[in-house]
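To illustrate the input format used throughout this study, we show a single complete record. The first block contains the structure-token representation of the backbone; no residue identities are included at this stage. The design step must infer an amino acid for every position from geometry alone.
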């Protein structure tokens, strides 16, 4: 059977494009190499333990992600638990500092975080962050290209952030958000993550999911796609795109050929580069993409016989490999007495390490942060993402490709493609929306 559209990959980018195109009545085929949909927003059962690709937070200013959920009949507010504060635990000083982040939903906590004084982060340390953040936002809006040439570390030095504020706030923030130390984290990307909160500051807060992401949204979106007439084939790895006479005409998966008028390549960056190369789709438009480096991510998830912390809250672990983590037994995984999900940094250190060695390091670092989990671990899993993120280092943002390509029949989607966001659920959905629009325009043009 010939389809109107083939979508390679069922992450949020592919699911979004599939949802929007089936809604318009197109015959869509989604091919996914894994046994489940959702990509980096999947959760699954692994030998008796519920795991997820990594703990995720929705940011209150997101617009594209809630919009696609709504189109699938899901109310985002019903699937997230909002947080107004975040914790910074320090290995150097051994205590916890809480910062508010919600000007409307938690103004007092925000003010206390900004102007408070503790043994760990003094008033002077906090004040030193103001010129850094204010100038960063200004430069993001006025000189984005120049800002992308500078790392967060260089920018912090330029604006005299104190050593303490740098190590206790900026190091854990950059590692916890995108697994990179401040010397490798583009200042443009860092402030770009905060900038959308300016016009939508009243929405600023973070949301943790009230269940596994597959059951809350990836599977429900897939069901709507199927209900609208789309086909999803899991365990179908695309090995090549069929590229003939300057046009992508379909794909090969599991030794079978599938044909369509339009193909949306919606895999993560590493797989996208491989498929473009393996299919010999040669064009100068892919030069930047092929040179845009990818970086890994690694997480460790513990099932415990009691909660690791007194509350489920996003926490950054300054001075340890536990870049960011959260207890989840009261929110995401309520079926167990304790559940801690951690993102490890630097990911390059862990990507080729045995799980047992990672476990030992994580347990030791948890102890340094005052978390007594040793002796309470019922089970654990390490989840690795080898080539799934584009690098957010200085000088790379301009290399992200547009969704539209000069190759007939081929559109790109995925969090690495050019959007107003960076490597998040929001950018994945935005890219899927753009790709769906391009495909629809092409289909309309060729129908005329
Ligand atoms: C640990 C971790 C924490 C994160 N935290 C947050 C957060 O707090 N907030 C936030 O907004 N975002 C977060 N993200 C990022 C977010 O998950 C991603 O940006 C987003 O899900 C990417 O979606 P995507 O569709 O672009 O790619 P993916 O989800 O990677 O989807 C690509 C799909 O393509 C499939 N595929 C690959 N190759 C082939 C092939 N050859 N044939 C068929 N299928 C193929 C893959 O299996 C996958 O399903 C986090 C990600 C991770 C890993």
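Output of the design step:
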């Amino acid at each position: 059977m010939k389809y109107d559209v083939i979508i390679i990959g069922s992450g949020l980018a592919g699911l979004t494009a599939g949802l929007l195109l089936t809604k318009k009545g197109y015959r869509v085929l989604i091919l996914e190499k894994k046994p489940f949909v959702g990509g980096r927003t999947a959760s699954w059962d692994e030998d008796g333990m519920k795991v997820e690709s990594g703990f995720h937070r929705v940011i209150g200013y997101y617009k594209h992600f809630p919009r696609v959920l709504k189109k699938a009949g899901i109310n985002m507010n019903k699937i997230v638990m909002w947080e107004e504060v975040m914790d910074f635990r320090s290995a150097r000083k051994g205590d916890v500092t809480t910062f508010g982040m919600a000007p409307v939903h938690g103004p007092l906590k925000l003010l206390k975080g900004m102007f408070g004084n503790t043994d760990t982060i003094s008033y002077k340390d906090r004040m030193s962050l103001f010129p850094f953040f204010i100038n960063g936002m200004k430069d993001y809006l006025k000189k984005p290209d120049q800002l992308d040439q500078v790392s967060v570390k260089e920018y912090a030095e330029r604006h005299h952030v104190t050593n303490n504020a740098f190590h206790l706030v900026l190091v854990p923030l950059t590692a916890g958000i995108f697994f990179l130390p401040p010397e490798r984290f583009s200042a443009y990307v860092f402030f770009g993550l905060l900038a959308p909160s300016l016009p939508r500051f009243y929405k600023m807060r973070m949301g943790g999911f009230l269940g596994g992401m597959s059951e809350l949204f990836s599977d429900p979106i897939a069901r709507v796609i199927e209900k609208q007439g789309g086909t999803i084939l899991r365990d179908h790895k695309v090995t090549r795109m069929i590229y003939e006479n300057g046009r992508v005409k379909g794909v090969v998966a599991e030794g079978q050929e599938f044909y369509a008028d339009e193909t949306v390549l919606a895999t993560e960056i590493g797989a996208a580069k491989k498929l473009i190369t393996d299919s010999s789709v040669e064009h100068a438009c892919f030069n930047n993409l092929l040179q845009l480096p990818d970086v890994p991510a690694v997480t460790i998830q513990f099932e415990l016989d009691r909660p690791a912390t007194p509350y489920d809250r996003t926490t950054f672990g300054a001075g340890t490999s536990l870049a960011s983590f959260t207890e989840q037994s009261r929110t995401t995984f309520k079926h167990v007495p304790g559940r801690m999900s951690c993102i490890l940094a630097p990911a390059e250190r862990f990507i080729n390490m045995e799980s047992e060695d990672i476990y030992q390091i994580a347990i030791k670092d948890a102890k340094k942060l005052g978390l007594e989990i040793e002796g309470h671990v019922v089970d654990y899993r390490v989840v690795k993402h080898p080539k799934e993120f584009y690098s957010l280092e200085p000088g790379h943002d301009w290399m992200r490709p547009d969704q539209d390509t000069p190759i007939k029949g081929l559109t790109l989607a995925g969090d690495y493609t050019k959007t107003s966001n960076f490597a998040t659920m929001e950018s994945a959905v935005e890219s899927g929306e753009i790709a769906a629009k391009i495909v629809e325009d092409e289909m309309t043009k060729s129908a005329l």
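Structural context for interpreting the output: Residues 425-447 form the longest helix (23 residues). The chain has 15 helices and 19 strands.
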